[in-house]
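For reproducibility, we list the full input for the adenosine-5'-diphosphate complex.
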Amino acid sequence: MKPHANYIGGAWVPGPDAAENINPSDTRDVVGLYARASLEQAHDAVAAAAAAQPRWAASLPQQRADALDFIGREIEQRGPELADLLAREEGKPLAEARGEVQRAAHIFRFFAGEALRAGGELLPSTRAGLAVEITREPVGVVSLITPWNFPIAIPAWKIAPALAHGNAVVFKPAELVPGCAWALAEIISRAGLPAGAFNLVMGSGRALGPALIDDAQVAAVSFTGSEATGRQLAARAVARPGAMARVQLEMGGKNPLVVLDDADLDVAVACALNGAFFSTGQRCTASSRLVVTAGIHDRFVDALVARLQGLVLGDARKPGTTVGPVVDATQLQQDLKYIALARSEGAELAFGGQHHAELEGQPGHYLMPALFIHSTNTMRFNREEIFGPVAGVIRVADADEALAVANDTAYGLSAGVCTTSLKTAAHFKRQLQAGMVMVNAPTAGVDPHVPFGGRKASSHGPREQGRYAAEFYTVVKTAYVAA
Ligand code: ADP
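The corresponding predicted structure, in tokenized form, follows.
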């Protein structure tokens, strides 16, 4: 098997070594070999990006729009093939993988339009004879560091706005999912960008960090991943000598779904099932805390358990599978550790939690989604991000307590409420301390053209996606012009 190479300065460059990309649904299946870049190669990528950036920034908006449109269309045309690759390397069921690939295509096409729409403001000055022009310029070289849980959508929502706004990119995907990243890079390599405007370096973030973050030519770093890594990265970005790097961090979540007495039970159960357990619970917007008022609690738990019994755990690419495997052995151990912890803290397992080292003769990281009841918001498993198919039901007396519990968390990415009262919905919409609020909709699952991001320990820096992405991927210039 020949390793897939890094893409640096417009050329495919093999790494000093390579890693196997393993299918979590069947760990005997090697998806491919992928290069691991050396630190020197990552510095080369940064240098290539720095050299190309002025040319890319000076390109006509139509050229950038055409390139992004080309990328979006090819992703769309190759949807089934890319979705299969995504399901194979990450373990997301095929239907969800298809949705993610489609979303990546939509993101590139949205930002094709943004390249043309970027504009400024012209304001009168407070002083006579002057006018004020406010324009946006590219930031420069941006390092994009992505996690494994959305192998194509998260890279898309960083790469597309970066390129649309005239930046040059060094993209470092998660070690576990280089397949989609490489396929995306290969498409971008044919989109007509100047050599060096887009670079792919694969491998360990820890090893390549000194180039991706500390290299003085990097103007900005956009990161999605764990809170611990995010904090470390931000500290480094400001500690380096000379100009500090701008940072955008998307990190953890402990998202509440509030179910109130007057909720439509079917809607609430559907939101909980999707939000907590789809994509094997491996979404930063997953509803890991189900905050349920006393009047509907028992009916809600019974109905949710009934729906959980209908889930089909299996190979992500097998038709009919609704829950795929956990992404790898490390994540599985973390999930199992929290399941044991929840039990020891006194929560009662109402469904699931069984680990299967093998299903239908296939060795994989299979875990039946786990639903805990009789849990409290002070239990550690309800406070720390697990990033797996584990959720706790927290019973509360009324809507006021539900709101207090929902907000009693270090995080603030997404929060949901299920109610049939317009007045209550409006109250929760205003009071929930989260970047995204969902009314009668799952906490996970967002549109590609509107801002994405959180509050508190979930996020740092400006929002991603939509036209708000310009806040991060451009710098503002204020010009005073005497007439
Ligand atoms: P996860 O639990 O999703 O793997 P991480 O924060 O460890 O979360 O990883 C998210 C991304 O950050 C990955 O692409 C990873 O390689 C990268 N990364 C991890 N550690 C560092 C680091 N010290 N510097 C830069 N990037 C890193």
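The CA atoms of residues 231 and 315 lie 35 Å apart. The first strand starts at residue 6 and ends at 8. Both points were considered when choosing residues for closer inspection.
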